[in-house]
Amino acid sequence: MAVIAEKDEAGRVFYTAVGNDLQAQQLSRDIERRSRTHLFTENPSQALQHAISAVFLPAGYPNTVTPDYLHYQFYNDVQEFCSSLSGLLASRGALEGFGVGDASASATQALLLTVLKDVCSRFTTIIGAYYFGTSLYPETKTFRFLADVINDTSIVLDTISPYLTTISLSSVSPHLPSGSTLQIVALCMSGAMRSLCGLVAGGSKAALMDHFASPVNSKGDVGELNAKGASRSTVVALTGVLLGTLIVPYITTRTSTYTALFVLVVGHLLANYLAVRSVVLRSLNRQRSGILWSTFRNLTDGNGAVILTPTEISNREIILDIPGRLRDAVSNRVIGHGSLGVSVRHAMAHCNAAHVLKMLLHFQKEPYVLFVTDHRPWGQQGPSILVSFKEGYDSLDQLRAWLHALEIAATWNARTTSPTASETEDIVFSTHDTIRKHFSPFMECLKRAGWNIEEGAMMMGSPGSVITSPESPETKKDA
Predict the structure, then answer these.
(1) Quick check: 21 and 1 in contact, CB under 8 A?
(2) Distance from the CA of 111 to the CA of which of 70, 241, 285, 329 falls in 20 to 30 A?
(3) CA-closest candidate to residue 132, choices 68, 210, 180, 196
(4) DSSP letter for each residue of 264-281
């Protein structure tokens, strides 16, 4: 005879007696009776907690999700509650914009306006998928927050659309829309922004769910996370709608509408910012790798170079930063700009031919080629660096190229005067030796600190072109 202990998804332990003799059968009956007694005498608060966990949290929680999952979901539910309330004000404004309550409006006019708004939404989805589709995974936190900024803009446009008919901009310029035309433009822009929000939020949420389902020592189920998240969102949205039906009828004046909208939008954005800020990603993108490299190169403790953990980097990330900026993490100062995956043709348009040839020759044995441009946008600090990749490059090559660009920008800004063309090339060569020396120890430190170096997200999408061979026109003629 043997007694087997089992634990269910809620963490409760059950015992089962295994055997065919009379003693095993009697023990099984005793265990079953005690289990029933335990279930009936269980603390009501514990029973409620187990029920809620089973319905709204993934199986095996907290072992099957990352530690930041619950913090994110709490703030995410708060922002969805605020969004559902402000959405009622927006829906009322959109209906008034379509002509509800206006005796002079017709059903045909409302139908045509709905079709126009739907056309704008669908075209926005197509164009947005083309421009933003490859950017959502590398910059997940940025686009998750940006999606709700776009959504709130759509809500504001819908809410104020009934009041736009009284605004006339013809005195400023006869080409600006006024009155009902301005209202139609606002409703179409609202539909386009709501569609763009759905696109951006959907892609960034998918990346976040993949992160939450990848704890260090386990593996969760992305499908279940999405399903449980949808059930929580349904409850939160339903609660917001039911509460809103009691409140919105009392918000009738323009002042009360604007005040309620302001409070809800601020609460929505604040909750969404806290939700994004609580996420601790272990993958490397351009901003996180830049912070890690700057602290690795400039800060030391008693044990050597400093490598920040994913939690420490999460607290230092800038949510709405421009991905191409090269930033010194110690001083938090922009020191240059970098572009990954550009073509040599593009580099030729921004650099002189001698520089391009010299860089191609120097990086002959590397999977990337780096160029420092002569022209920089107005107001830009530091150098502008272009990186082309060769056929067969991988994610670590992208990381090494970006760190090389960051090292060039740091060396450039350490000078008191702008370097000449030959001095710029010397900076490229000397920093290349620095990268060769420190890159491997840097990667080992990242592994020990808990970073996932295999999952790189340095570049948005694939490069426009890759270098296959350095053939010259004369070689092609001979062939």
Answers:
(1) yes
(2) 241
(3) 196
(4) HHHHHHHHHHHHHHH---
pLDDT band (50, 70, 90) for residue 214: confident
**Residues 98 and 107: beta-carbon distance below 8 Å:** no
Q: Scanning the structure block, which residue is given the tokens 């005067």?
A: 417
d(CA 206, CA 190): 24
3-state secondary structure of 194: helix
Q: What are the C-alpha distances in Å from 223 to residues 58, 206, 228, 304?
A: 10, 10, 9, 43
Q: Percent of the chain beyond pLDDT 70?
A: 82
pLDDT higher than threshold 80 for residue 453: yes
Hey, what amino acid is at 310? Answer: P
Is it the case that residue 102 has pLDDT exceeding 70? no
The crossing angle, in degrees rounded to 10, of helices 254-278 and 69-98 is 150
Structure tokens at 145: 């927050």
CB 68 within 8 A of CB 220: no
What DSSP letter does each residue of 110-134 carry, written as one string?
A: HHHHHHHHHHHHHHHHHHHHHHHGG
Instruction: Say yes or no to pLDDT of 185 above 80.
Output: yes
Q: How far apart are CA 28 and CA 17, in angstroms?
A: 5
Q: How confident is the model at residue 469 (pLDDT cuts 50, 70, 90)?
A: low
* Amino acid 22: pLDDT: 62
DSSP 138: T
> Is the pLDDT score of 175 beyond 60?
yes
CA 412 – CA 428 distance, rounded (Å): 10
Cα–Cα distance, 433 to 404 (Å, whole number): 10
Structure tokens at 425: 């090339």
pLDDT, position 186 = 87
Tell which residue, 399, 457, 402, has the closest CA to residue 134.
457
The CB density around residue 80, as the number of other CB atoms within 10 Å, is 24
What pLDDT digit, counting tens, does each position of 245-261 carry?
Answer: 999 889 888 889 889 99
